[in-house]
Design goal:
The protein is mostly helical. The protein is built from 11 helices and 2 strands. A hairpin with a 3-residue loop joins strand 1 and strand 2. The chain is globular and about 55 Å long.
Length: 216
């Protein structure tokens, strides 16, 4: 009997992923604003694809926390809220404490230098009360750690959760709830641990940066 071709399914999956990346990037760079309604016809006109890959992509983005969907009511960009910020921020600390512990011993000299420079930049911006600007770049900053951790399962977890969690930090009250005088010393400890190639100290510092209780 004839064997059905699987090529269309593979093409659909690739198309869905492409659409998902484009919508995700538009949300993260602010082209699509928090609370903005997403209309299928507008997305079809913008992306030049059919409804099916768009709906599949939106469903994935809803699972990651960037999209809110209510059947027959609305599909819209998620709107970060003050009361969700600390839970999201601490969740990132739980995840990335482990990521940092794995990544620090694996950094090449070039990667280590890049991370140290990134932490310098973050500390400088936090010192100027520019936490909101840091949060805008948050997903990319976390990705630098995840890319080096060498654990495929953990990398996949980071990929599926970081965007939505980092997006929740984009609220005006961020500097109030994540005060510079609390996190700046921990950022310096994290930087020192990276330079010293000390994974345990780095993990503890990353957790402290994210306001997790100390283990003492």
């Amino acid at each position: 009997m004839p064997v059905p071709s699987t090529q269309p399914a593979a093409e659909r999956k690739l198309l869905r992923d492409t659409v998902q990346d484009k919508i995700r990037d538009a949300i993260m760079d602010g082209t699509l604003e928090p609370g903005e309604r997403l209309n299928d016809d507008d997305l079809i006109a913008w992306l030049g694809v059919s409804r099916t890959p768009i709906r599949e992509a939106l469903a994935e983005l809803a699972r990651s926390g960037l999209i809110e969907m209510a059947p027959n009511r609305y599909t819209r960009v998620a709107a970060p809220a003050k009361d969700e910020l600390l839970d999201a921020y601490r969740t990132l600390g739980v995840i990335y404490g482990g990521v940092v512990r794995l990544a620090v011993p694996r950094f090449t000299d070039a990667e280590r230098k890049k991370i140290v420079k990134m932490l310098d930049d973050v500390a400088s911006r936090v010192g100027k009360e520019e936490q909101s600007e840091v949060a805008h770049d948050g997903a990319d900053l976390y990705a630098m750690w995840a890319d080096a951790c060498g654990n495929a399962s953990l990398e996949q977890l980071c990929k599926s959760t970081t965007d939505g969690l980092a997006f929740k930090l984009r609220v005006p009250e961020l500097a109030e709830l994540v005060p510079a005088d609390v996190i700046l010393p921990e950022l310096r400890k994290l930087q020192d641990a990276v330079v010293a190639k000390d994974p345990i100290a780095a993990e503890l510092a990353m957790e402290a940066v994210h306001l997790l209780p100390s283990r003492g």
